[in-house]
Amino acid sequence: MTAVQANGITIEYETIGSSDDEPMLMVMGHGAQLVSWPAEFLEALAASGYFVIAYDNRDVGLSTKFPAGAAYTLADMAADGIGLLDALEIDSAHIVGASLGGGIVQQMVIDFPERVRSLCSIMSTTSGPGLPPPTAEVINAMTRPPATDRDAVIEQSVEGAHLVGSTAFDIDDDVVRQRAALSFDRGFHPDGRINQSMAIATAADRTAALGEVKVPTVVIHGSVDPLVSPVGGELTAKAIPGAELVVIEGMGHDLPDGAFPAVVEAIVTNARKA
């Protein structure tokens, strides 16, 4: 892993694959670090012929952290990713975002259309109206005081994985614990989650702007996502001309190992249309 100065902040990133291949920028979700991407998933994309670039969004991991109450927008977060491409001297890339990352990559293609080769939005939405709320159980979990002790944070991560995770695919608690421990040790920053939450809450409806997107687009969503309803995927695909909607049966708000083949195939098939 290494870091660059971009868009006025430090951005930590890592790459997988050959720089001679077409670049693919991976954007993670709310409070999630680049290590939240399953390594096997990124390796599968690289093996398909892509130079995979994953990075820590602002306020998480090893990228610049802000104090509580810092005001920034999804547009700022989108500019971070484009700034990373600038620092790496990459003119354009395929972009893939999950959850909040889906909103960020949507903003990227709106604000920087010439920098995007293809778009993949996973388990996200348009920030527009019509999205059913999360389930009551998820809302209760989201609104309780977060854990701060390392062991408690790790166990809360396991609980959360089962709360929002897939029903048709196995959830490996040991893997969840390992990733949670790695994230905690790399950079535990609960204020960053609050700041990112505000960026989500204040995001403008992207529906109309997405109607101008001209790059190949695939929208991927789990059929049992209890955090961002599958309606979010439907609304996103409906907003983007020619977008393909891929619904993974039994997938929740996660990327389980068993879904890798279908998700990788959808991303790669879309990217090859560019």
CA distance, first residue to last residue: 29 Å
The number of E-state strands comes to: 8
Classify the helix fraction into a percent range: 40-55%
Please give the order of strands in the largest beta sheet. Answer: 1-2-4-3-5-6-7-8
Q: Quickly give the structural class.
A: alpha/beta
Radius of gyration: 17 Å
In round numbers, the mean pLDDT is: 97
Count the DSSP helices: 10
Percentage of residues in DSSP E strands: 15-25%
User: What does the overall shape look like?
Assistant: globular
Largest sheet: 8 strands, mixed
Series of H and E elements: EEEHEHEHEHHHHHEHEH
Low-confidence stretches: none
Overview of this protein structure:
The protein has 274 residues and is of the alpha/beta class. Helices cover 41% and strands 18% of the residues. It contains 10 helices and 8 strands. It has an 8-stranded mixed beta sheet, sandwiched between helices. The chain is globular, with a radius of gyration of 17 Å. The two termini are 29 Å apart. The model has no long low-confidence stretch (mean pLDDT 97).
